[in-house]
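User: Hi! I'm working on a homework problem where we have to compare a predicted structure to a textbook description. Could you give me the structure for the chain below?
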Amino acid sequence: MRRRSGIPASPLPQRDGIDAVRLRLPPDGPWPTVRGYLLERYGRAIGPARVETMLREGVFVTTEGPLTADTAYRPGEFVWFHRELEPETPVPFEVEVLYRDERIVVVDKPHFLSTTPRGRHVTETALARLRRDLGLPGLGPAHRLDRLTAGLVLFVARPELRGAYQGLFERRAVRKEYEAIAGYDPQRPLPATVRSRIVKERGELAAREVEGEPNSESRIELVGHRDGLGRYRLHPHTGRTHQLRLHMASLGLPILGDPLYPQVLAEPAPDDFRRPLQLLGAVLEFTDPVSKRPLRFDSRRTLSAWTSRPSWEAGTRGGVDP
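Assistant: Happy to help. Predicted structure tokens:
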């Protein structure tokens, strides 16, 4: 069985909602066997002995079956395997499914849960959970929310339709509305539109604003304020990494609980869920590209710094969003 792209379907089923790693053998090389290539590519990272063990145990497979130490090298051949995953701290909050049909799934993601596997967050992600819980191995995201941001995420149930829904976000045909809690400054005139050039270098935790033509735009509105805190409605017109967090900080209104802006702080322990970032993806609104129906979804979550400020400030678990 082959996909439309010409890439064979994986012969390995998902494991805990995670696809097998796929690699393609280089078109040329000095290796008489696949073993030689695997030792060169992975021997330094996991050790030659581990590569040999994986070969003996049949971990590396092609569409024809498991590889052995003697399997001849065939340029361009696809190889799959499941990598060993490090134990992850469970995120003790549920992903709430708000809407599901034969094409899409819309969920309300909690804080601290990554949208998709990345870095050390693999099985403890919304995508892996939903694939397992809903029995949808082909599920994929149409867009992403930061791990620390809660709120609405659109997933596509059928891989062949993913491009149609991702295209909505690429064309800015989705109206997105966020809510944030930050300090209140009566001297800061709002609403305001923030435009800047944002760059994020590979390997750096925080994005930054630099001189040059703007590539990001956000509309910031004050909804209400009390006891020195402001409740803000944010409308991103572009989708740069950390855009809203950076724009709020640039206004002198850093979002409560943000470990990166205006300055990078020490990363909290993996099991410290006491101070969630006070940012919520509250609204998604778009016209379904297949059914042509207008759709709107509203998050059911609330931001704990606004609803229970004393416990949130004290750093108790009572201030964590459910």
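For your comparison, note the following. The chain has two domains: 21-81, 96-319. Residues 21-81 form one domain. Good luck with the assignment!
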